[in-house]
Amino acid sequence: MSLNKQQIAQWFEVLQKQICETLEKNDGKGHFEEDIWQREGGGGGKTRILQNGNVLAKGGVNFSAVFGELPDYVAESLKVKGKEFFATGVSIVMHPSNPFVPIIHMNVRYFELENGTKWFGGGIDLTPHYVIPQQATWFHAQLKRVCDQASPDYYPRFKKWADEYFFIKHRQEMRGIGGIFFDRLQATETLSIADQWNFVQNVGLAFAPIYTQLMEQNRSKNYTEQHIEWQKLRRGRYVEFNLVYDKGTKFGLDTNGRTESILMSLPPEAQWSYLHTPAENSEEAQTLGFLKKGIDWV
Amino acid sequence: MSLNKQQIAQWFEVLQKQICETLEKNDGKGHFEEDIWQREGGGGGKTRILQNGNVLAKGGVNFSAVFGELPDYVAESLKVKGKEFFATGVSIVMHPSNPFVPIIHMNVRYFELENGTKWFGGGIDLTPHYVIPQQATWFHAQLKRVCDQASPDYYPRFKKWADEYFFIKHRQEMRGIGGIFFDRLQATETLSIADQWNFVQNVGLAFAPIYTQLMEQNRSKNYTEQHIEWQKLRRGRYVEFNLVYDKGTKFGLDTNGRTESILMSLPPEAQWSYLHTPAENSEEAQTLGFLKKGIDWV
């Protein structure tokens, strides 16, 4: 099978639609508004945003297929040669209102250059405001299952990659409990580029069942003002990660992407408090204890 | 006069103390808590934070004097050679609770390298949630007065520099109404390094009278929930600027500075709303109209 970039983009667009439908159904109130946009340098996308749902406070499911000339400094930072690029993908971030429902992020993407270089990237990771160990284990087991279908070394490699990637260096803590992250998946001796595409599709398809289950399990939990305050502080860390470290955000802003679509990842509200330190043995302190690299959840 | 880095640092430390005293007196309730910290690579500082005052919701006045080895990539981005650096300065950000009191930022700093390279940098800029033209003009006139004492070309140059610097590229809007910004002030044909130091001291001394007057003029104004929501959205933009573009923040995080001191600039609360657009002719829309480069306020 030879890969066709238009077919990949089309598949991603259908994925966006299906995920939005499933999330709406599970939320029960929120509705995704759609904005179709074009990129000056070439291409465009569809941004779908839900605000003020029952479970989801603010979430976005973004599809884009863009092309054009790669700015020199972007080519340099990607360490590639080749002027004309094509990039397509689906990006999701969901910020729930109940602090016991975790924030989730998913991305599947394809990138190619005129010179024939092509690769896939993506991942799914979870950022619970309160880490619930059983759910963390279950979440990682779902990802491992998807990875194992492609290759037995994918889960350990991509889990470790997520641990490295979703790390807030200046806080010396992880954004959440990680998940899987991969980039520049190309054909190898044992896996063709079509195999990689198959894997990436499975990652995309895994998102909705995983997140709707986590919504279901936690949406009715009671919470207090204190839980909400902690949620806002954790959302503040989410903002720090996305604006300081996230490569997708940086790539988007650097290539004059559509700002409102790129920054849909930001939470509805965030809070910063100087030197905030949770009380010893509190739920919040326990969560901080889980925001470390290298925890073997499975 | 030969400049002595220790004396510069000492003067900055006294400036910090005086500014905190003046702000506390004017706030009438808030108190600056002090944290003294040391930097692993060399040096340290004093961070003073006030939270939940009458006028000031969250503000920081940071003094630091740090030294050590400059990481290669920092030297590269500063385009300097020389391994050992010394840097000292005072940084201030004040986030008021009343949306009609503007956010203010001030910085005065000195940097030197073992090879004899030395310079001053700094500035003052204002970020009103609601731009009040008379106050914007008055604010710029104060800065012009300070600049004119040093050189007639300082205000136009440094005002323009602030317009360029405090620009949120991905939003195509300024963070606020600018002010003055300068960097790498070294000895010139007409101004010695001692003259530059004198100018920088005058900038530092101008801060408290300017901001206390703006606090006084606006602290008692009535506001609604809608004003507060807009304030949070503007604070969101402040976060975007500081985490994506601000060089001081980047330098601090890159040199393993003290995170809580660097990020004291972040607001107590911020908000993001997808594609938020104020109603035509509203106070909010008028303010957006003023967040442009090149407005001649004086």
Oligomer category: homodimer
Structural class by sheet pairing and helices of chain A: alpha+beta
List SSEs of chain A in N-to-C order. Answer: HEEEHEEEHHEEEHHHHEH
CATH class of chain A: Alpha Beta
The count of helical stretches of chain A stands at 9
- Quick check: average pLDDT of chain A? 96
Order of neighbouring strands in the sheet with most strands of chain A: 1-2-3-4-5-6-9
Strand content of chain A: 25-35%
- Tell me which protein chains meet in the greatest interface and how many residues each side has: A-B, 31 and 30 residues
Gap from first CA to last CA of chain A: 34 Å
Biggest β-sheet of chain A, characterized? 7 strands, antiparallel
CATH topology of chain A: oxygen-dependent coproporphyrinogen oxidase
Reported CATH architecture of chain A: 3-Layer(aba) Sandwich
Spans of chain A with pLDDT under 50 lasting ≥5 residues? none
Number of strands of chain A: 10
Estimate percent helicity of chain A: 40-55%
